[in-house]
């Protein structure tokens, strides 16, 4: 690994490219009427994905970058669920009936903050309004500290097929610094209850770059997590943006590792997981050899969406809840972020769409290139450009960022195909960014918003 490459590209603040264009490009020109038209145009026989956002937690983890609200009371949650159910009925009434569901994901916040009976009632409504098959994948994000035996059983009864557990770090010093005390025993108990309830596919989230974190503590956490044998890991770098997420001001910036230390931590976790028998998937996911992610990667069919690397091939995503983002063939649509504003829109009888983005042909082409780079570390730019009727010359030969990456030895270009070199895959986002036509403008927009 070259120190100059790490210095130049390793600390760049770049998108994770779970979508293209990225969210800073969204604008209020896409409103509830536009999104309603997009929903009505969804082909009847086409599988779609659903995303449901539950924006509540019992306590704030100081590293968190999600849209969430802290509540000790159940009343705000119950009020929100009533609005969410109204939105589900409203959307279902605007789409060809019944839409077949390929994948569904509950995100947060903490989705399992709701009571077991409320979860089952929500699942009943969804199955009433949409068409679920035996192969429909249903995933739920879980805080192991809050998971009860009764909720685990409800998840199994509701047909959940995958659980994503937040672990982050088992180091007590790190946990105190991020306001998330979670023992290995709590996590192991959650895994046990889920598996006993029939939720057999488990994912752990780990984070590096946290305050007081070291290479040794990252390795210790990874080894403890491996002992519980989840099917997948997602390993993310902590993004410190206290001007945008005010609660991150509780984190001591002097305790944060620098770029070189962050990279060493990421490499240590990766090496530990690979040594334990996990295959690396793309930039930051790991899976056991029998997992569908591995099969998709081997077949060149790995995809990337808002949940990261996935086997979800649905072209349409319908987002429910405050701040939820939907995607159709025409573009992206995002709901109002504030739960109160979201609720007022739904109560008025209209969709809660606040902003979005209408895709152009060039956007779709660039999105395909970026997705293949992020998934495969290579992209046949010439072939993708030709499929969209674009000349690849401007994308490759007139691309100064790409030329600089090639000069640094990060990638090779031959016959219109870009290949990221094995030992430089950690900067693949910089390669993807070379095809982002809006990056500088998006960064300025985000800076102003922050």
From TrEMBL:
Protein's pathway: Porphyrin-containing compound metabolism; protoporphyrin-IX biosynthesis; protoporphyrinogen-IX from coproporphyrinogen-III (AdoMet route): step 1/1
Subcellular location: Cytoplasm
Top-level taxon of the source organism: Bacteria
EC number(s) stated in the UniProt entry for this protein: 1.3.98.3
UniProt keyword list: 4Fe-4S, Cytoplasm, Iron, Iron-sulfur, Metal-binding, Oxidoreductase, Porphyrin biosynthesis, S-adenosyl-L-methionine
PROSITE patterns membership: RADICAL_SAM (PS51918)
SUPFAM superfamilies: Radical SAM enzymes
GO MF annotation terms: coproporphyrinogen dehydrogenase activity
Biological role: Involved in the heme biosynthesis. Catalyzes the anaerobic oxidative decarboxylation of propionate groups of rings A and B of coproporphyrinogen III to yield the vinyl groups in protoporphyrinogen IX.
Protein name: Coproporphyrinogen-III oxidase
Gene: hemN
